[in-house]
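This part of the workshop introduces the protein records we will be handling. A record pairs a protein's sequence with a compact description of its fold. Comparing a sequence with its tokens is the quickest way to learn the format. To make this concrete, we reproduce a full record directly below:
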Amino acid sequence: KYRSRSDFIAKNMSTFEWLDVFHDLFRRSLGVGVWFLRVFTLSEHQYLFQNHFDNPTDGPLNDGDAEWFSDALATINSRRQEYGNISGELRVDVCAPPGNEPIRQNPNIIDIVENFGANTHTLADFYAHSNWVDEATRGGYYILEREIDSFGTREVIEEGTVPHGLAMTSIWDEQVEGYDLYSGQVDGLIDIFGSPFSGERMDIFGNVDKSTHAYWEKDAPPSDEESAEFRRFEMARNLAIEHTLQEIRRLWEESENNMQLRVIYSMNSEEKGTESVQYSLEGCVLCPGFGDFEDIDSQIDYVAEFINDQNW
């Protein structure tokens, strides 16, 4: 994970150190400015911890301060500043009410869509990756050991204490203070997959280490619908949906003084095409490996349907 655009965090690199080096070079190569990677590089996608409320540290939480939640929230709020960023050639509208934004020919709302989409993804990941909905019995003290010889001698790899689950059933108020928030970390490819030689860590695919993403993640529904894991997933998903609807309301409120934007938001994808509204890049040559834009029309239609149903 990356603390910033220039600070690459890499720890515990042993036999596969070159993988982390490749990881770094690959991420940096995406910043060259190639046009078809615009969305991918806008938020650096998987490589910036703020996009996922992921823990950028490695190891147990020792100081009790999960400052990365504040960092991720600041990123969300900075993107919200772009919610009114409509572009296009200006034209005179003598009928426009005083104080309203000017009308634009061939209006372009790609920046709005990108930032709104990035934010709703990040807000959903808050519930999927944090301890917000987990039971209070989860988290706490843990210890990781491994055998170091044929006699069964074991050594401690890591031990520590992380916050317990908060067992919340309502959406987050976007306040960091007052909550013992926590999310798991993923630090480099060696930790994502685990070493084939030592099997020490598996931050993505294991769930023993309570400091990891694997222990806390609720990204996909478990197969057993009667399990506690499935109930956690359901709660996280339901709260993420509720928070997304709240974000749509925020998007609408940000357009209070721009009637053109409000009309655009109420259009479905077909109507946007008729009015020459630019809201999506044509596609990405890396798709489907790094994200697919084909479903954006259905997402646009969903937002428009929700807005039209609210009678705001």
User: Anything to note?
Assistant: DSSP finds ten helices and four strands in the chain. The longest strand covers residues 154-162.
